[in-house]
Design brief:
heterodimer; A: about 280 residues; mainly alpha; MetI-like fold; about 75% helix; B: about 300 residues
Chain lengths: ~280, ~300
């Protein structure tokens, strides 16, 4: 198609496309950038002069956020999410593998039991869930939250890993069985390593999902708040204290690790989060 | 090996199934059970009250208000998110200059930027936007619109605007995710199809409507269901961002917030469970209706 050349119309379409896309980029980025800059400003600067940079960076905002226990909340979140993701991936892929590879009576029923859990929002059963956790003595405990996070992450993990295990070739596993490997050895030493790409994307999905979980800990862990709960209560607390520099420093501490991780791994994050939905 | 098979299957299923039964299935089943009682959630005693909770719910003005607010989100969120995401995905894929049809330069940067709200937690986003929407003329949103000669507006403090602020933040946070989703689906469409349409003299717009949209129909359908379920929730955003929460004047009440308030603050666990049951059937109906209404012939390419 040597006759096709750049035309004026073509270039103006491209220019218009860029203008639209740049405007939306600003709409997305400005709120985050503004919040990060505000973490180094005084309250007076944040509201009096919202678009300017700080005259004098107020690093003590971060000290005062630290004094408000942000470190403790961060640690609580790290402990719960690490435990939750490891347990979710282990149990989720065990279920998915058995359902994908072993026909037995009730197989489809168990699969749909898990898959249907994806559709219903958690708050629908929130009141009874609270009393279940309470009666087990697991309110405001790490292990309680880890178990609940895992239970609510299973539907998606099972559904996705089920589809993934089905795409893997059966020949390697059959060869291992002929060599005398047990069913569970085949799973742990043959199938899991082969499923690494699927495990990775679904692990990213679960890390982000559990890190950002708010409804479950809000009701199930009132005395041991996680980072999202602490962030959520910033407004109601600070409305009286009116120390907005500290509020934004607190937010910045919550945002920066996630943004850094996102920028470092964004291809994996994007494909991990969207591949789950497409299946 | 065969005799060990069932032991293996049971061994692998028992722990996950037990966990799932205790924390997911049993609370859902209990929701149905408690919806027929007057349980307070505090005392261990309660009576069976038949359909009283549901009758009461039918006449509950506050719940009705919450229902209609959810309805606004249920319509607004999928429509705006899907349209914006489709538009951006189209611009990224065929907005480029050069021979034939090609993607725009800076494609990667745009995807990186647009997707960002998806990785941050709802409370973080809610806090930032509620400060941006501060009603003073020095608030970020007001000072920006001030340059254009508009405002100042009361945003979240105004009963007429607050729900639309919530809708805006939901759309703002979702567009990037669906853009990446649509973009992935669009990239898997062979470029020849666009080129052929182009050579046949189709404009970019008609290529979009006649060629791209039908090819993406499956993905759009799935997105529609996901966004509808998201709109039925909206709890975290409303809880953190709005005055009250749910205000001003209950203008941002949503059903999920009613469940939390009745079940935990007002000591009406039975009544809150009835709301949960209503929501359960609403979710089922909406998913079924959406999947039916949007069903089309599947296109292979």
């Amino acid at each position: 198609m040597a006759t096709q050349r750049r035309t004026g119309g073509d270039i103006s379409v491209t220019a218009a496309s860029h203008i639209v896309l740049v405007i939306w980029s600003f709409i997305v980025i400005v709120p985050f950038a503004w919040a990060l800059v505000a973490s180094t400003k005084t309250t007076r600067e944040i509201f009096g002069d919202p678009w300017s940079l700080p005259a004098d960076p107020q690093w003590q905002n971060f000290e005062s956020a630290w004094d408000n226990n942000v470190g403790e909340y961060l640690l609580n979140s790290v402990i719960v999410v690490s435990g939750g993701v490891v347990l979710t991936m282990l149990l989720g892929s065990m279920v998915a593998y058995v359902l994908a590879r072993y026909p037995f009576p009730g197989n489809r029923f168990i699969f749909y039991l898990f898959a249907s859990g994806m559709m219903f929002p958690v708050f629908l059963a929130l009141v009874p869930l609270f009393f279940v956790v309470k009666s087990l003595g697991m309110l405001s405990t790490y292990h309680g939250l880890i178990l609940v996070y895992t239970a609510y992450s299973l539907p998606f993990t099972v559904f996705f890993m089920h589809a993934f295990f089905r795409t893997l070739p059966t020949s390697v596993a059959e060869a291992a069985v002929i060599d005398g490997a047990s069913h569970s050895n085949v799973f742990f030493w043959v199938m899991l390593p082969m499923a690494k790409p699927g495990l990775l994307s679904i692990a990213i999905f679960n890390i982000l999902g559990q890190w950002n979980q708010f409804v479950l800990p809000q009701f199930l862990s009132p005395d041991k708040p996680l980072l999202t709960q602490a962030v959520a209560s910033l407004l109601s607390n600070q409305r009286y204290r009116a120390d907005w520099g500290t509020v934004f420093a607190f937010l910045a501490i919550a945002m920066i690790p996630v943004i850094v991780a996102y920028l470092a791994f964004y291809r994996q994050v994007q494909s991990g989060l969207t591949s789950g939905t497409l299946k | 090996m065969q005799h060990g098979k069932y032991r293996f299957i049971v061994g692998f299923l028992v722990a996950p199934l037990a966990l799932y039964a205790v924390f997911v299935i049993s609370p859902f089943v209990q929701t149905f059970y408690y919806s027929f009682t007057n349980w307070t959630g505090i005392s261990p005693e309660f009576d069976y009250v038949g359909f009283d909770n549901f009758e009461f719910l039918w006449k509950d003005d506050l719940f009705r208000e919450a229902f209609f607010n959810n309805l606004v989100l249920l319509i607004g969120l999928p429509v705006f998110t899907v349209l914006l995401a489709l538009l951006f995905a189209f611009l990224l894929n065929v907005g480029g200059t050069g021979a034939g049809v090609r993607g725009i330069t800076g494609n990667g940067f745009y995807k990186l930027a647009f997707f960002m709200p998806q990785v941050l937690s709802v409370p973080v986003i809610a806090v930032i936007w509620s400060v941006i929407f501060s009603p003073e003329s020095e608030g970020l949103a007001n000072s920006f619109l001030g340059w254009l000669g508009l405002g100042p507006y009361d945003w979240l403090a105004s009963p007429d605007m607050a729900l639309y602020c919530v809708l805006w933040v939901l759309v703002w946070g979702s567009v990037g995710f669906y853009l990446v989703l649509f973009n992935a689906a669009m990239s898997s469409v062979p470029r020849d199809i666009f080129e052929a349409a182009f050579i046949d003299g189709a404009s970019r717009l008609s290529t979009f409507v006649r060629v791209t949209m039908p090819l993406l129909w499956d993905t759009i359908q799935t997105s529609w269901v996901y966004l509808a379920i998201l709109a039925l929730d909206a709890y975290a955003l409303v809880f953190v961002m709005t005055i009250g929460p749910g205000g001003p004047d209950n203008s941002t009440q949503v059903m999920a917030l009613r469940i939390a308030q009745e079940g935990f603050q007002n000591g009406k666990a039975g009544y809150a469970s009835a709301m949960g049951v209503v929501l359960f059937f609403l979710t089922l109906i909406i998913a079924a209706v959406l999947l039916r209404a949007t069903r089309r012939e599947r296109i292979e390419y």
